[in-house]
Give the backbone structure.
Amino acid sequence: MELINIEDIKVESPYLRLDTDVEKLMKSIETVGLINPLVINKNNELIAGGRRYTALKAMGRTQVPVSRVEKSELEQELISIDENLVRKDLGKVEMEQLLARGRDIYEGLFPQALKTIEEDLSTPAGNEIQKELPNDKRSFIDLTAEKTGLSKKVIKSAIEREEKSSDAVKSLRRHGELNASQANQIIKLPKDEQERVVEHFVGKSAREMKNFVDMAQTRGVDDALDEYLNTPQLPKELQSLKTLLKRSNKVLAKILLEEMGTDHPENSEILDLMSSLRMSMDQYLQLCGSLPKSSSETASPEEYDKLADAALGMLNSDENSNPNEAQW
């Protein structure tokens, strides 16, 4: 480590984060000092430590500690990417771009390392970090998972989104109009088809996106889009209600089948909420002209048997269903 004049440091790398708030970092440096020096190359170009550089400059420091590295341009770029990934103060799309670029550089520098595309994450063992292997044999996602604390599945999915997303999909994600779960569905389509359809799914759920993609893959994107656009769409509020009712029915089915106790202190509040919900549901059913019987009538034993069978069916369906879609 050496000391050099801060004015001699060249700030040119596109990976340096110079425009972020460094007030907390400045206070930390004042309190405990600079823990990690700036990283520069032989030409005094800053490779890593953009926020530290900004903080030191704002504090009026003239002489700053640096660690000088003798690396190739690609190795220097990988160092910059690693620092950004570890900091985790990136937008999701930006992080995906860095992960994909880091993977490309790493696998080029270390051709003997396990390739990301070859990594089998379908088993618990495959998701474990392989610390026993030499670093130059470990996959990029394995090393990155260890450095960042992200799971290997999350990292691999992020790289796939970056590689397979069209420009329109990436733009909508940057503006918060499309999330990772939605992107995971639409990237199953070719990029040119993504460009054609993605604007129709802004504000829609990942489930709606999945249903459309499944249809497009079976019947073609033209037929799927035509049917989607010409089918009346359920209002967002009713879609939310539908989802909540499905979940509530499954929870109630489990409660009824297991005959859970009703002597909990909060049970009276639950009953009040259910009574209020029942009144609202009766009003909605009357509004739709679908109220089957007055709320004062009780079900027959045969109807109770049907309810129990339905509850068991919902429980079995819930247990055999796919887990929630992965999100980042």
Notes: The chain has a mean pLDDT of 85. The chain has four domains: 2-70, 76-162, 165-230, 254-320.
